[in-house]
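Regression test case RT-17, inverse folding.

Input:
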């Protein structure tokens, strides 16, 4: 597969959000990225993007995405712009061109998550047996891909 960054996947979710006029906040975006990463790793046994998730107090977080959104939004404010990538692209078309399974997973995760409140999404990924909880219990910072995939 071509080199895909977390920002490419984030921009795909943002594109869906903008086209459907369904605003999302940074927390929702992070959780959708987490689910995409998890599904991709389960299916391929490869990480989707090189940056690891961090077990922050707010839940699983990709720090690059966190910092990119931090400049633009407040924590519970809707994301209104695409994230800057190294090249300007039509992200969804790029993902479709290289990986139909990934595009399908992104669309499926969008359909599941777009109607859920952020607090519900957060509970789903930070529950008692979640990878996030296990990582925090072990006092680790980075979440291991295999632990994410198993929980």
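Golden output:
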């Amino acid at each position: 597969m071509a080199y895909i960054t977390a920002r490419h996947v984030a921009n795909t979710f943002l594109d869906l959000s903008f086209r459907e006029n369904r605003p999302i906040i940074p927390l929702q975006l992070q959780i959708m990225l987490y689910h995409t990463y998890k599904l991709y790793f389960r299916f391929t046994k490869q990480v989707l993007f090189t940056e690891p998730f961090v077990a922050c107090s707010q839940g699983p977080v990709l720090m690059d995405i966190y910092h990119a959104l931090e400049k633009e939004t407040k924590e519970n404010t809707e994301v209104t712009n695409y994230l800057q990538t190294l090249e300007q692209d039509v992200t969804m078309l790029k993902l479709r061109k290289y990986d139909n399974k990934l595009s399908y997973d992104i669309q499926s995760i969008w359909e599941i998550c777009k109607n859920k409140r952020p607090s519900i999404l957060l509970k789903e990924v930070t529950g008692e047996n979640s990878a996030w909880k296990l990582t925090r219990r072990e006092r680790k910072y980075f979440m291991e891909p295999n632990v994410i995939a198993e929980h």
